[in-house]
Amino acid sequence: MEYSGITGQATLSSPLPPTLRGLCFPAQASAAAASSIRTTSAVRLSLALSRRCLRSPIAVSGSPCSGPWRRRKERYGAMAVAALLRRRVLSPTPAVSSCSPADYIRCLVSNSDLHLMVHSSGLRFQRGYHSSGKFDLTDLTHPHMWYPKAREKKRNVFLHVGPTNSGKTHNALKRLEASSSGVYCGPLRLLAREVAQRLNKVNVPCSLITGQERDEVEGAKHSSVTVEMADVSTEYQCAVIDEIQMVGCRSRGFSFTRALLGLCSDELHVCGDPAAVPLIKKILEATGDVVTVQYYERLSPLVPLKSPLGSFSNIKAGDCLVTFSRRDIYKLKKRIETAGKHLCSVVYGSLPPETRTKQATMFNDDNSDLNVLVASDAIGMGLNLNISRIIFSTMKKFDGFGFRDLTISEIKQIAGRAGRYGSKFPIGEVTCLDAGDLPLLHSSLNSPSPIIKRAGLFPTFDLLSLYSRLHGTDFFQPILERFLDKAKLSPDFFISDCEDMLKVAAIVDDMPLGLYDKYLFCLR
């Protein structure tokens, strides 16, 4: 077998080995599916299991390289492959059950499933994943190889980068509207809903899929999803990833990395902050994709005010007060409405989808009495809101570990929502509630965003599933903890923060769930 230790790719050149023909399948498997695998003559697989590829001596620790030992190891390896193929037929895992048998075998090879199974049965390849001939499942240095379907394409990747209100996402969505099939991947449920409504409004049937809701439109070839729900097993003509700078987020960055590397589309439009461009281009070097960068300028002016708001009596219609906890959102809402001048809409990430949509719609409606918005930093993620002035109630936020100052990117992202192009507020303004916060606001708006140096990463289910099989346990928490502790990364990636995942894993381990369901619970 031709196998590259650099990329992990295998050349499928020889016939299916005799040891894999006439496989027996469980009664639960459909006859058609079983027959499909048994009779797939197009599958060209060179394995160490095939005698044709075993002409050279095989190193088996503590055993001879020929005779009954050799035949026994071949049988064990063939049984392992048969088990994997049966898993393909029966598995509820979308990534496993949706592909053809031929594609599945290729996927197994590129993910080194077969290499692991053969190695665990005692065989070692003449040329393995590493120079030692042993495959290390915790080696995450080539994450682009986790998505063989996307690697079969030479994607045209367009980076749309610029400040907020520059039209970058609008241009990407226009291309999505014109495509025969496509997917939009956004950071927020409210944003995904907004895009789905936009496409349906222009007679492009579009389904909405988030972690909380599924609104599937019959016959739709387009979908709008939160990035964690991106389907990397489906082929699209066009795909859009919004707010790509979140690839550097400690908790959610891995989802953006997965979408960037795994989406199988002819065109991939990636929108976000210019600070992400060097890293994205470097990551995509390994994929062989064609990358084009298009820079945008802001379409409407943004004016940082020299004086703070000072008093809530200075609130006016079109203002948006930004804070970073649900409790503070309702405190500010109560103080503003108690003054008797204005009524407030509220928007934050954990609001139910219908409520968020209704609140945003009422704020944008000129005939509504709700003419002031109190919101979290969720408004910084591309929501189309008619905001005249952004007012920071604080410049600190709790990030799960402690309170910290807002970053330059966060300040720019939120402040830029004032004065949306084409709205009734052509000029945006930004200030703070307290005078002491103004220096940080002004310095951040006048500084370039720091370059993003690393992207988040998290192992796929197939890797963790094989790792659990290797250690003979279905308890997810110890497997996840051990895997992450031993994981090896390239300098361009980091393992996303997994503290909450490990807590969830410890809880779901006590429930009667399969490993895949436990994995999904931890990701969401």
From TrEMBL:
Q: Which PROSITE patterns match?
A: HELICASE_CTER
Q: Which residues form the Helicase C-terminal domain?
A: 291-465
Q: What is its EC number?
A: 3.6.4.13
Q: Which GO terms describe its cellular component?
A: mitochondrial degradosome; mitochondrial nucleoid; nucleus
Q: What class of enzyme is it?
A: hydrolase
Name the chemical reaction catalysed here.
Answer: ATP + H2O = ADP + phosphate + H(+)
Where in or outside the cell it occurs: the entry states:
Mitochondrion matrix, Mitochondrion nucleoid; Nucleus
Could you cite one Gene Ontology molecular function of this protein? ATP binding
Query: Matching Pfam families, A to Z?
Result: DEXQc_Suv3, Helicase_C
Query: In which broad location class does this protein mainly occur, judging by the first location in its UniProt entry?
Result: mitochondrion
- Domain of life per record: Eukaryota
Q: Name one GO biological process term.
A: megagametogenesis
Q: Which UniProt keywords apply?
A: ATP-binding, Helicase, Hydrolase, Mitochondrion, Mitochondrion nucleoid, Nucleotide-binding, Nucleus, Transit peptide
**What does this protein need as cofactor?**
Mg(2+); Mn(2+)
PANTHER family attached here? ATP-DEPENDENT RNA AND DNA HELICASE (PTHR12131), ATP-DEPENDENT RNA HELICASE SUPV3L1, MITOCHONDRIAL-RELATED (PTHR12131:SF1)
Subunit arrangement? Homodimer; in free form. Component of the mitochondrial degradosome (mtEXO) complex which is a heteropentamer containing 2 copies of SUPV3L1 and 3 copies of PNPT1.
Q: What is this protein called?
A: RNA helicase
Q: Where does this protein come from, organism-wise?
A: Eragrostis curvula
